[in-house]
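Fold these two proteins, one after the other.
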Amino acid sequence: MTYPVNMSVTPVVSAHFDEATNTISYIVRDPSSTHCAIIDSVMDIDYAAGRITYDHADKLIEEITSQGLTLDWIIETHVHADHLSAAPYIQSKLGGKIGVGEKIMIVQETFGKVFNEGTEFQRDGSQFDALFKDGDTYMVGNMQGFAMFTPGHTPACMVHVMGDAAFAGDTLFMPDGGSARADFPGGDAGELYDSIQKVLSLPDEMRLFMCHDYGPNGRAIEWETTVAEQKADNIHVGGGKSREEFIKFRTERDAQLDMPKLIIPSLQVNMRAGEVPTDKDGNPMLKVPVNKL
């Protein structure tokens, strides 16, 4: 696959860190217009209380409205297991299309079974406005973006590239953070390694923006690096580490990890494009599958 990389365009990127989930959401603005996109929004949840709020999303909305921007896209890099998407809430305020990778259908089928969803739960990705295939292009104002299929963490992960900026989702962390786990249903460490190599084949000066950061060894939270820095310094894949080395490390490491605290609500909401499921009376309601994850 040859991707339409255009390093001559430098989008304006605004990062918004969510401390509760260590997620970074982005507003990406076309430098030649007032159009923008949002990458990986967050909906706040107090899981113990069963209470949903929108403080993080409201900050994105406020920035876009205060600058007089037009929102073209609300993009999910994948079905997140550690935070809930605020895509439909943002869309209700600002418009824009909600997009995700076309392999969402695999995720919906897999977790539709885990959560014992009935036939009313559509497993065809129809909850989203656009399903991206590998290499698909789209426009943010005058700026062309494109999607790279990067499975491994999940079967539906995609990296989105706009000009000289690539939004890595969970395919990569900062160099001292390495990579994301590959042990969720549908994940695969070998596929993740191959996907990372695809990302690292982008130009060395390509800016890479992470979806998460946890401040390894007590450092301050960071979210921006470059392809060159990742190739040289990433602790899991940098310096020419082999596929076999990565698979061995990733498999052993994943076996030691606890499940994300918000995986149960996140999967149910995110596979529905950010909509909270309801019971037969239309009340918002989440399920807790026992011994299924």
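Now the second one:
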Amino acid sequence: MNDSQARPPSPSSPNGMRRKGIYMLPNSVTLAALFCGFYAIVMAMNKRFDLATLAIFAAMVLDSLDGRVARMTKTQSAFGEQMDSLSDMVSFGVAPALVALEWAMQGIGRWGWIAAFIYCACAALRLARFNVNTSVVDKRWFQGLPSPSAAALVAGFIWLMTDEGRGYDAYVSTNTVAWIMFAITLYAGITMVTNLPFYSFKDLRARRSVPFVSVVLVVLVIAIINIDPPLVLFGVFVAYAFSGFVVYIYRRAKGHPVSVISTSTNEPDEKGLHE
């Protein structure tokens, strides 16, 4: 009898099979993002829209970290991917829709909750499509507006309008604000399920050596944001939300492929998909 035959079964299970578990670190970050989405809904119910929008932005930051943490610690898992999608649905699908509805769109009756539902449904469709198309979409581009960016567009407008000291309510009627919120919510929702290419920034390598001027540019960007965070960031969100149309028109005019489905052949599993 050799050593492998003589080795007793693992105490972790009766039949010697190792029990499956989950990785705590990346899933804890995902749960924190989920909590932020839930917190945003609760704050909207309590009419604390300033805290609700900040919670959505906090969820965005955490959502950008959980995948990186998993890759850095080599703790990627199918469970983590599914957990991340469910967290995104709450934080970037349900929460922004309900916050927008509670803040302004209830004043326009059924049109308000219809816009909120369309946004929520489109977020679910976008996340489902992202999950099934992961292996065939060029990693440099998103197919449709990413759900965190759509949530930032909705929450950014609310943050801008509710920022203390601006007094926008003195210039814009409540009904007008409700219809503007309706248009933004509807635009963000529908754009998520289009095939427009949005740059993903995934090909930027933080560990790669960059010129010194790049650090100076980062400092300048931080300084510009601090001049007026709500206004500057909302402007950035609006620019990104329209960038997909610009890229689409530019590619169409140049005769380049406009689909983000395997627009590059750098990866083996993309071979032949351009034909």
